């Protein structure tokens, strides 16, 4: 069984109201990037949450040399994911003041320190020491900060916290679990801050112009008295408390009453035997949980033990492994859809977180060589009364054995033997159960891997078959397209040929038509020409006759002229000849008469020849 050290450092001086204000103003220059250093926490909430979240899957929100904050989101499959944070602080470190957005329940895993918080309806600053095993709740709207103690063994302060996710108090991932007080203060301008805090402008500027640091810093002690005057004004302005800072003094702070915190290790376990122990915490034994929908539990299993098969009728369990390792078996309801829920076996180690929904039977088992310690949060503070399937208080003991035999399809003797053997209860001895479960788990994993590989091979075969089918279909489509293309080409050619033939026929018809028109036009032209030709012929004939007549007239005139000229010439010649003849006659008048007759015959001959020429 795990031994938890229960250190109680009551020797540490309590925090005073002044120190709270001191830390608040110290936080202002150191906490400007609290949400920035949280790496914009809302960015992480978009990831899907599962039933099991490994430690390595935690999301780092803050990482400094003085501490770190990480978170996970885990779901029960019924409602939105549950937000869990893990705060780890080095000794003498300070988690700077924040404003809480939702209900917060936390468990101190290791270390010690002090919690200071204030709530709007309270009339005082609350301060409690923190130690291992403490459980505390802070309500929405609380302003709080935490300081870890400086221990000789330098043990880190580790806090596991859950933020409510219920119908009445919903965790909103868009704004995160809390916000920096510095950001709230610096969101207002200088004039508003001066009026609210009643301080000088230099004080306000020293706040608004201060440098940025991380959410967890080294806690440097201070003894300055200058913050006493700001103490009451801060309370009145920021949380509405009714304090007069000028009336406060150190004695009142020393006498301030501390709030009581519930510690798991201060209480007796609900159940304990040689196989381990278990304890549940709700509003009945921890008044701070009153009004919250979160309860807590812790289970410590010794080596080779098992928390018997059981289920929660009213609560979902969100468990964190604190030490050791173990196997968890979760069974789905018989009517659940296999696609949405399946039986689970998984191995968990220190730091892992797992969730089990209500009405899901489960069993947790430790290994033979290691204990298994886990604590967790339940989603209800009402009496849960877990129902055990096996053991002395088995729910089967309440059923009619004959009906149970029929239900399990076995004999009554078998049922008698089954129930008579159950002498232990709740936490049972189960040597090598975890090992066997792990073996089955590995076999299932191997089987699932083989099935997955076979499925992948089958899917690959189907893909290849589909690929071949697609290729064949593609080939057929291409062939069909080629055939259609050829048919289309042939059809196009036929259409073109038909079009060409029609065009040629039309052209031939047009040519014949034009030829016919031409012939008709020629015929008409001939007829016209004939008509015009008759008139022209007559005109030509008339013209020809006229021209012939003119030619004849000209010829006649020419002949007449020629004849006249000839006649004149002949007459002239004749006259000349007659003159010469007369002369000769006169010369030869004395010649004989025969020569005169011959001369007259020649003259007659010449006259006839001239007439023939004409």
How do the strands and helices of this protein lay out in sequence?
Blueprint: H1 17-30, H2 34-37, E1 52-53, E2 59-64, E3 67-74, E4 82-89, E5 93-100, E6 104-110, E7 113-118, E8 126-130, E9 134-138, E10 143-148, E11 157-163, E12 178-180, H3 181-186, H4 190-197, H5 201-208, E13 216-218, H6 228-239, H7 250-254, E14 262-263, E15 271-273, E16 276-281, E17 295-301, E18 305-311, E19 317-324, E20 326-330, E21 344-348, E22 353-356, E23 362-366, E24 372-378, E25 387-388, H8 401-408, H9 412-420, E26 427-429, H10 433-588, H11 593-613
Antiparallel strand pairs: 1-22, 2-3, 3-4, 4-11, 5-10, 5-12, 5-13, 6-9, 6-11, 7-8, 7-10, 9-14, 15-16, 16-17, 17-24, 18-23, 18-25, 18-26, 19-22, 19-24, 20-21, 20-23
Helix pairs in contact: 1-6, 4-5, 8-9, 10-11
Please give a handful of descriptors for the protein shown.
signal, Jelly Rolls, 26 strands, 41% helix, Putative rmlC-like jelly roll protein, RmlC-like_jellyroll, single chain, disordered N terminus, RmlC_Cupin_sf, Seed_Storage-Functional, 22% strand
